[in-house]
Amino acid sequence: MKNLDAKRAKYMRMRMGVLASAMGLALGAVVSSAYRVQVEDGPVWRETAEKQRQRRMHVESKRGSILDRNGTVVAVSVEVPSVSVDVVEMLRGVDGEPKQTATLRDAAARIAQILSLDANQTFDKLVTRRRFIWLKRRITGDEAAAVRDLHDQKKQVQPIRGLKIEGEGHRYYPGRELLGPVVGFVAPDGAGKDGLELSFDEELRGRTEDVKGIRDSAGKLVLSEGSATAPSLAGHDVTLTVDEGIQHVAEREISAAMGTYETRGASIVVMDPTTGEILALASSPGYNPNDYGESDVEARRDRVITDRFEPGSVMKVFTVASALAAGTLNPTESIYCEHGNFRLDNVTIHDTHLNDWLTPTQILAKSSNIGALKIALKMGEPGLYAGFRRFGFGEPSGLPLPGEASGVLRPRGRPWFDVETANASFGQGISVTTMQLATAMSAIANGGKLLEPQLVKRVTDEHGAVVREGAAHVRREAVPQHVAKLLSEMLTAVTEDGGTGVEAAVPGFHVAGKTATAQKVDPATGRYAADKYTASFVGFLPAERPRLVVAVVLDEPMIGHYGGDLAGPVFRRVAEASLRYLGVVPQGGAKLSDVTRAGDPADATLAAMKPQLQGPAPVMLAPVADGVAVPDAAGLAARDAVRSLVSAGLVPEIEGTGKVVRQVPMPQSVVAKGSTVRIVLEPSS
Amino acid sequence: MQLLPPNVRKHIEFVAPLDAAPDAKRAAAAMDPVMWAVVVGLIGFGVVMVFSASTVEATMQHHDPQFYLKRQVAYAITALVVLFGLSRVDYHRLYKFTYPVLFGTGVLLLACVAGFGHSGGGATRWLAVGPVHIQPAEIAKLALVLWLAYSLAKKADRVRTFAVGFLPHLLVAGLFMLLCMKQPDFGSAIVLLLLTFTLLFVAGARVGYILGFLIPAAAFAAAAIRFKQYRYERYLAWLDMEAHKQDLAYQPFQSVMSFGSGGTWGVGLGRGLQTLYLPEAHTDFVSAIVGEELGFVGIALLACAYLLLVLRGIRAALRAPDDYGTYIAFGIATLFGVQALVNFCVALSLLPTKGLTLPFVSFGGSSLLVNAAAAGILLSISRQGDPVKADETPEPAPVASARAEAAP
Q1: CB nearest to B326's CB, from A1, A24, A129
Q2: pTM given for the model
């Protein structure tokens, strides 16, 4: 500025000063604005930013699987792809409203075509210009591939940007009805709602606090708080003690029995008495958790643990056991059974078979009420009550399933009067569950130890490392070992000639067990109904070295009602097939070939299942020897439908009135002879 | 000037607007230590912030968290070489390059618009020369400053005339601006406009001409916004950010959120999470990440650094031995100041979004190298400063403070 005259230099300095001041002022405005945003409004913004990072929790951990003891999948989560779009990304590089609209229209048309959506609706979604929009959830593999092609720069002249495919978990039960009421189901929001899915929800889901993390603009989990990485979010796998093969037989048999005897319901437990492991646990009617929405709430109940009922004569086993343990009964003494009629206070008690003198063994074999009550009265009320309690009645069995009933021993909350003690001794006036019966019978089978029943063998994390493992746990000694041994011998008489349970005898094995036929109380009158029974059989085999305890309970059979006649054959078929499946060789003399009954559906099922169980292939309904094709009943009236089903050797189960609109199993599927076919009728409009 | 023989002096007067010839002794004098410290500090700070702001995008787009860091380090080293290299060149030697640089830049801008450009982010702002992408608009800013300084110094008193002093500058600047707008790069066009008017104003152009032009220009700009649908929508979205935070105002909204979540002291270097949401976090919106990670204190300090840089630039302008030096120095100081200001304003959503970098800090080779070159020239001018005489005319406040520092 040397060359300038002083006046011009002064002007120039002034002008520079003006400009510099203006810049300084603007900078001051920037800093004051920063102060307002950062210091004054800072906390509000920070909260907004945090909310933004926590939003859209639809990224979930993969739910763990439920497996049977051999690793066959019972419930599994499969990733079903869903497609979303970021419209801002889609429009990046497209300027000008008309161009953008054209781009959106074009994209909407192409997307709609691939995903079979409505182009206009898709366009309406896109014009909201959100950064995250679900286009279609649960798309097929082909659709996913087509969507990928849409944004592949190599395959498209004009790739559509911003499309994203993410997996969403979908629960799948490959066994369909198999174990339905036991596993339960999962709601669409990922929460387990019933059965094991509910009680193991937390473990199956994965640790929820790990799911919290930081999400990017597309809602994708980018960083998780803490050390956990995305794979370790996966839920644990739950391996059951249940054996799918035995479960299959058990379910088939009780649903067949339900059809044959027209029962209201049925339940069965197969248990390993040495460990308490449950090998099968079935409740009928069941349901298919894959479409749980279409099932009856009633059918979802797991009757094995939720239904309590008056057990009837099975309790004589525990009455005799308790008396032997208490020393009030001598195993060799004879008891006078009053020739079938005994008056206690103002009540007369009858026996079905009229007997005079019976040994404890005979009392059990012939199921004498009078004999049992005399044993109980001699022992006294406290002794019987304590004896039952020691066998686990009146307390929950401890299965990890929701809704377990504990049964009631003293319904009025006070010690029994003599009449009540007498009733309790043969299983009246008290209530138990199928699970409790199986557990108590296991205690007789294993030498007196009351075991905690186990349903879960182990819980493993996604790497296969064991998180938790089930182990045999003895709750208490129910009776001394020699008493249990004695009982085992006595109970074999039940299934021998002259006993009530001959139908339960398995050729080649000694079977110990007890039948029960209990009248049900009619809830309307509060008195025992003449035509409502609970028929059951609880037993174990081989009696010398028990491998299996099986408890079968049939609720309100319409055709016949004796436990021995109804539940006995179910027991036999399940026990026989299970032993064969487990490879237990008969020792009782009869040859294996005699044991096999031609056309026994249980055998056929297992024979067909064996090779499948060895491979990893999912178990499907096995082809059945002596099977029949289900006739098509669609459109028929009830009478014609029943006729066509019965002539094919099937048992119809009718629901509704009018014409047949639906049937399960589907027409032409092959099922065992004697299977139930459910037909749903609706009035034709 | 008096020291030169008359024949040489005449020659110089004829070819160049210089009244101080290249002088080896002067050019070797010490440069402004405060200025180079600030510039080097900003470049280093930029490398750190670019790394912090780009990790997420680098990982997601390039599967290498240090993708942008490596490049920025390379640019920074080159920038330092350019900075100290140019600071050793006497700025008087630059006038010879004025026209080649101006034409060269014009050609590059034209090439960019004519379809040789490389698109990105909805605009064609880059030219690919082999593996290097250059941004002609960045070069245009410095080229225009150099040319204006040369032209204004040459025309000296004739600056006050319309035909010679005002119109030609406006035409050249207008052409550059049009080419920038065409890309479209509204931000750079605005910077060019501001540079032109500040230099014309300082050189002594009539305020009447400037206002007479500024008012129609403002009207034209308003119309350009109002009648170009997407710009108008952006403007409306900027006005009502809350309603458009998911679409058009997404970026400014996220940017303000970044500032806000930093609070007073910030969440700490490298701990910012808004990089997950804020597009262009490492380039145009790096100041938002500074705000988040270093808080209000960091932003205030950064603003002070730019203020200091501008003040030292004006000091160099005041002490320059001739008009040419004064204009260049003031133009470069304005260039730094205006870019930083506009960048801060956009990031704080005080202005609608423009594509302007934060000088020295934002990621980007063109911007960093051009700004470093500008700073090098500024340093070169600072070497030649004379102590300002105490008996000179009184000055406005900011200049006075600069002078006070220079006084001893």
Answers
A1: A1
A2: 0.53
